[in-house]
Input
Amino acid sequence: MGLYAFRQVSAPWRDLIDGTPNFWFIVSSTTPIDITAVCLSKSKTCPLLIHYENDEAYGDYGDSEDSEAQEAMKERASFLQFSLLTIPHRHRWAILWLNAAPNLLSDQLNGTMPLLHTVKLVAKWKATASEPNPATPPETPFGGDIKALRHVDLRSGPAAWGLGRFSGLRTWKMNGLVGVGLTTRHILGVLRESPFLEVLEMERLRVQILPDETVLAPISLPQLTRIIFRWCKGDIVNHILRHIQAYLEMIEEFLIA
Output
C-alpha cells in the first residue's frame, strides 16, 4: 500500500499521513484485512470508498462439485470477514464498488447509506451456476436511504437490483440483469425523477413493456449526453425513446446496437 511506503520516509511524513484522515478513505479487500481495519480507524469520520473484489475465489472449478462448493464457501468467508469490518461504517459509505456473488452483494445494501452517491455492483458467478428464479423476483436491496445516490452501474445481477427507488440520477447503467420484474413503467419513472441525467446505458436487459397509466408530458432530459442501448429488443428501445425529450446539441454519443 502506497501510504505505508510514504510513512517510512521520515517521522514528519509518518505523522502527517497518520494525522490526515482523508489519506485513508479507500477501504479495499485487495489489501490485507489488518490494513482494512487501520484505514477504517484512521479515516475518522471521512466519507469512504468501499471496494471488494476477490479474484482468487473465481478460478478454475474443475469438474468436481465439491471443488465448486469449496470455492463458494471460500468466497463467502472472505466477503463476510470484510463486511464485519465495513458494515458498522455504512453511514460513511460514499462510493461502493463490489464484485462478488449476487446474494452477498444484495445483503450489503439493506441499510441506511445517507452519503452514498456512487454504486457499482458486478455479480460474479459461473455461467453454469444457479441463477435467480425468473418467476420469483426478489425485493430490491435498495430499500434504505439512497437520496444522495447519483451514479448507478449494475451488472450481471438479479433484475431486482434495477428496481430501486432511484431519483436525481446523473448516470444510470444496467447490463445483463437476470430475472423478471423490471418494466418500462419503472424505467420511465426513474427517468422522470432524474431530470439532470447525463448518461443512460442499457445492455442485455429483459424488460416488460407496460402501457402508460396516464398520458404524461415527454420526459425532458436537457443534460443527457450519452444514450446507449446494446442487445435490447427494438420495441423496448422504441418505447423508452419515444418518451424522452433530449437536446441534439448536447448529445455526444447515441448508439443502438
In short: Residues 93 and 173 are 20 Å apart (CA to CA). Residues 65-86 form the longest helix (22 residues). The chain is about 25% helix and 20% strand.
